[in-house]
Amino acid sequence: MIKEIVDNYFELNLKRNTRKRQYVEARAIFYKLCREFTKLSLEEIGEQVNRDHASVLHGIRSLNNWIEYDNRIKNNLRILRNKVRNFEDEKDNVIELDESIVLKYVQLKEQVKEQEEIINDLRNALKDITEKHTRREKFYQKYGFIN
After folding, report:
1. Which stretches of the chain are DSSP H helices?
2. What's the pTM value of the predicted model, to 2 decimals?
3. Residue 42, C-beta contacts closer than 8 angstroms, at least 6 positions apart
4. How many Å apart are CA 19 and CA 15, to the nearest integer?
5. What backbone torsions phi and psi does residue 39 show, to the nearest 5 degrees?
6. Which one of 6, 115, 144, 147 is most buried, by most CB atoms within 10 A?
7. What whole-number distance in Å separates Cα of residue 23 and Cα of residue 14?
8. How far apart are CA 140 and CA 86, in angstroms?
9. CA-based R_g, the chain, Å
10. If pLDDT is split at 50, 70 and 90, which confidence band does 43 have?
11. What is the CATH number of domain 2-94?
């Protein structure tokens, strides 16, 4: 999820094997965010972007130095950190919504069952009325009250 957020923000593919500055900075921010928001090891973080643990460590250290002097990188990190936090909050809300949806589903299912019972009762009543009506109509026809 973090990789996708960073990829989309910079409009890059972090897995691309290049040393262009924009990719190096984006990967460094990705490494930092993964360390802050996950319990992944350096090796596991690196595997996400085809790098080793040493590259991850070097990227984090470099980023810490860059943000002291480069406000652009500092702002990008701040923005992405907020995006990840917001995503985490939304994910928690989705879980809560999922639970409320399940409860609502159970309630609606019970209402459907009750309505089906009412419909069956009405069908039976209609059947009885139709049978009575048919018998009366035959009686009235037999004795000439109707043609």
Report:
1. 2-10, 21-37, 42-48, 53-69, 71-142
2. 0.60
3. 53, 56, 57
4. 11
5. -110, 20
6. 6
7. 6
8. 77
9. 34
10. very high
11. 1.10.1750.10
List, in order, residues 6 or more apart from 68 with CB less than 8 Å away: none
Distance CA 73, CA 27 (A): 12
- Residue 31: other Cβ atoms inside 10 A: 29
DSSP code of 94? Answer: H
Domain ranges in the chain? 2-94
Residue 94 CA, chain-centre distance (Å), reads: 6
How far is residue 47's CA from residue 52's CA, in Å, rounded to a whole number? 7
Are the beta carbons of 30 and 49 closer than 8 angstroms? yes
Distances (CA, A) of 1 to 65, 76, 92, 99: 26, 17, 14, 22
- Tokens 């419909």 correspond to 119
